[in-house]
Design a protein that fits this description.
Elements (H helix, E strand, L loop, with lengths): L2 E5 L2 E4 L4 E8 L6 E8 L6 E6 L6 E3 L7 E6 L4 E6 L8 E9 L8 E2 L3 E6 L1
Parallel strand pairs: 2-11
Antiparallel strand pairs: 1-3, 3-8, 4-5, 4-9, 5-6, 7-8, 9-10, 9-11
């Protein structure tokens, strides 16, 4: 049974930093691409970042590029999202996702989410 468990969310002021973690279990982590998405109140869930299973190539949404960094620790089965210079518009529930092989539209597994709130 695949489980993705996010942690590290919280309430911070604008300009602060946070690091989210997503611990994966029940899968062969090295074979999975990992992604981060977020959903603000009343809005659709949106892609934030992904890191591939093999070469570890990364992609970012334009809204976070240069501020957020995705990384993975294959020894610990954890994917991280380091978030710097947070803005109030970054407020959302952040979700971790996993898909076997390269990143694609139909992510197979999702975590339960962690709330990030950025005050102005």
């Amino acid at each position: 049974q695949v489980q993705l468990v996010e942690s590290g969310g919280g309430l911070v002021q604008a300009g602060a930093s946070l690091r989210l973690s997503c611990a994966a279990s029940g899968l062969t982590f090295i074979h999975y691409s990992m992604g981060w998405f977020r959903q603000a109140p009343g809005k659709e869930r949106k892609f934030i970042s992904a890191i591939s299973s093999s070469a570890g190539s990364t992609t970012y949404a334009a809204s976070v590029k240069g501020r957020f960094t995705i990384s993975r620790d294959d020894a610990k089965n954890i994917v991280y999202l380091s978030m710097n210079t947070l803005k109030p518009e970054d407020t959302a529930v952040y979700y971790c996702a996993a898909v076997w092989g390269p990143p694609r539209a139909d992510w197979g597994y999702w975590g339960q989410g962690t709330q990030v709130t950025v005050s102005s």
